[in-house]
Amino acid sequence: MCFEKKLRIFIALTCFLFLGCDVSLRVYRSFPNEKEYDFVKKMDHIQIEVKDENRMKMGVFDPFFFDAQSLENEYGPLSYLIRKELSIREQRYPLLIEKGGKIRIESFELVTLDRCHENLTYVRLKGNFQIRGFSQEEFDYYDEILSHVTNCYLLGSTITILPLVWYVPYSGFRGNREDQINQLGRNAVNEFFNQLEMASGFQNNRKEMKEDEIKTPPKKKTTKTEEPMDPKLKEIIDSL
User: What superkingdom heads the lineage (predicted)?
Assistant: First the structure.
């Protein structure tokens, strides 16, 4: 029992002081220069509900050696991300902003689950939304990453050189647990907003040029080449 406690303490110190096993959650819509917190407008005509939302727990990290950890999103809970999106990019949701409606998130799961030989990171986002005057639309998204980026391999790579030669390039290719959970979370949020944009009538197409605006390049002038004159014909012309 004493040995087990010492082993846990050693692993904890090794991970969190040297190997960086801790996970920070940074889920947001990936736009340039996105701020952690921004001004949110009051929109009483749009109802936003996230079922069983815990503002201090947007994700879960289970590191195998220790108990599961609740992850707080540094950019705020999901309900705030939705309100923020509608406030700072309202031009992308013309129908929803004009007519109002409701957005309901039934479930949101963002988990990175460590086992000794493999790690499963997954996201599940399920909900629906309805713009006033239009039918309700469903949204159901799931994605996962299965890898061998785990604390067991990470700890083993510090003890012997052979796992280190394999683990470091592999981790660089697959990304660590923090990279994986943040990427999946951002993808899910982005897909939800993309569907909401389409339902709201946002068109992000390139402007088509009108016919009178289309400039055609000037045609090159073709120079006429004179054919040599028949000698007999030249004599007749000269004699006139």
Answer: Bacteria
